[in-house]
């Protein structure tokens, strides 16, 4: 008998092995803006957007001081962080640019627009927003027509900022 996962199922969080908690906190909290929800001594930290118990866990249980994982091995390709609007993606793009944080890519996938970068342990990170489903490109048979095209970063940088208070650095 076939099983279908419930449509409301979501990926709740990602838990990453890192080599240095402070360095990772500088990236995920200070640069990307996540909030610390809890700490386990100096070994693990849990981070949230908007008060959820955690979206990202960081730990050094098996990886303190370790080098990045080799790129050409099995493992996590990237963690994808979904922003609610294009304005929010534009705001984080401007922030990355202000902090001179390098991108590894920027793509328009038809269904979404994405920025790619690496965290301090060279874990891939995708920052993206989804276009509304009614705007997703489709083939004649109704299936999604996803693609990878260059994202116009100049145009993204010109998008008006979100209409809400911004946190200070």
Describe this structure in words.
By secondary structure, this protein is α+β, with helices and mostly antiparallel strands. It has two domains: 12-64, 2,3-Dihydroxybiphenyl 1,2-Dioxygenase, domain 1 (Roll), CATH 3.10.180.10; 78-161, 2,3-Dihydroxybiphenyl 1,2-Dioxygenase, domain 1 (Roll), CATH 3.10.180. It is 17% helix and 26% strand. The protein has three helices and nine strands. The protein has helices at 21-31, 86-98, 153-157; strands at residues 14-17, 35-40, 44-48, 56-59, 79-83, 105-108, 112-118, 124-130, 149-150. The strands form two sheets. The protein has a five-stranded mixed beta sheet with strand order 5-8-7-6-9.
Secondary structural class:
alpha+beta
Strand order of the largest sheet: 5-8-7-6-9
Kindly give the count of domains: 2
Our measurement of the CA-to-CA distance between the termini, rounded to an integer number of angstroms, reads: 54 Å
Helicity range: 10-25%
Shape: globular
Q: Largest sheet, if any?
A: 5 strands, mixed
Low-confidence stretches: none
């Amino acid at each position: 008998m076939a099983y279908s996962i419930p449509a409301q199922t979501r990926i709740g969080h990602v838990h990453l092995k890192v080599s240095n908690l402070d360095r990772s906190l500088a990236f995920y909290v200070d640069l990307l803006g996540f909030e610390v929800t809890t700490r386990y001594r100096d070994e693990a930290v849990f981070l949230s957007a908007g008060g959820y118990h955690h979206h990202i866990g960081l730990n050094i249980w098996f990886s303190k001081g370790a080098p990045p994982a080799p790129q050409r091995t099995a493992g996590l390709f990237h963690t994808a962080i979904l922003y609610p609007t294009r304005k929010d993606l534009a705001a984080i793009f401007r922030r990355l640019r202000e902090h001179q944080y390098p991108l590894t890519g920027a793509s328009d996938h038809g269904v979404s627009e994405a920025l790619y970068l690496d965290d301090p342990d060279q874990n891939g990170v995708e920052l993206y927003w989804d276009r509304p489903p009614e705007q997703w490109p489709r083939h004649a048979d109704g299936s999604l027509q996803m693609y990878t095209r260059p994202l116009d970063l100049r145009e993204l940088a010109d998008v008006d900022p979100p209409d809400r208070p911004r946190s200070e650095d």
